[in-house]
Design brief:
Elements (H helix, E strand, L loop, with lengths): L2 E3 L5 E3 H13 L1 H13 L23 E2 L7 E2 L11 E4 L6 H8 L10 E3 L5 E3 L6 E2 L5 H6 E6 L11 H18 L8 E3 L17 H10 L8
Parallel strand pairs: 3-7, 5-9, 5-10, 6-9
Antiparallel strand pairs: 1-2, 4-8, 6-7
Helix pairs in contact: 1-2, 5-6
């Protein structure tokens, strides 16, 4: 779904802009329902309802903030406008630097919330409250956090112990923040997203090991 930018810099889906023009063809009842649905997702535009945003702040302690291009994600106020109930695991098919470079490129039109390096270093590129274009499926983008991992699906050596452990801590923290069960129904591979043509994280990603590590992490929930 293509999008355009308002004068304030926020992104509005093309569907929103076309609601009025399509009303006659859809019929008054259907058009009114579509408009109400879209407006219910845009409540954060009203003054005073945005969550606080501090430049450079990260959701995951210890992560490095590297901002993705604004063309590669959509402003939101999750989980108040979209419930978060999935973590999607990706593999870059390249290096950590490759992922950072393309996610900062406005022409790429995609980015994940996080990128994990071979040595376990984590970069956050999109805030968790915002919708990153990572899954190739609008519904999954709106409901999930995307984690990219440096490496190649065809190379088992890509997936180091440091990477597994750092990623598992990150996923466990995300699950704690949003009450997501730590299981394979809610922690999924990109290949499992409906409609995708991607194969990552691939057959060499050790899901049994990863889920064990995620479940072993003890996360202390901080007061907000």
């Amino acid at each position: 779904m293509s999008e355009t930018t308002t004068g304030g810099g926020r992104r509005v889906s093309r569907r929103t802009l076309l609601i009025g023009g399509s009303a006659a063809g859809l019929g008054a009842g259907v058009a009114a329902y579509a408009a109400r649905d879209e407006l219910s997702r845009m409540w954060w535009r009203l003054p005073g309802v945005d969550k606080p945003r501090k430049a450079g702040a990260v959701d995951q302690p210890g992560a490095e903030w590297i901002a993705a291009s604004g063309a590669n994600w959509r402003w939101a106020d999750r989980p108040d406008d979209y419930a978060i109930d999935r973590v999607v695991i990706h593999v870059v098919q390249g290096s950590f630097d490759d992922a950072v470079r393309v996610f900062r490129d406005p022409g790429h039109r995609a980015a994940a919330h996080y990128v994990v390096r071979r040595d376990g270093h984590i970069a956050q590129m999109v805030r968790e409250l915002d919708v990153a274009f990572h899954a190739g499926n609008r519904s999954y983008n709106e409901r999930s956090i995307g984690i990219e991992h440096e490496g190649f699906v065809s190379k088992p050596s890509s997936f180091t112990d440091a990477m597994y452990r750092a990623s598992a801590r990150l996923t466990a923290s995300i699950c704690e923040r949003y009450d997501i069960p730590r299981d394979r129904e809610h922690i999924v591979g990109h290949v499992e997203v409906p409609g995708t043509d991607h194969t990552d994280p691939g057959r060499h990603w050790d899901w049994d090991r990863y889920i064990r590590l995620v479940r072993a992490v003890r996360v202390t929930r901080t007061a907000t």
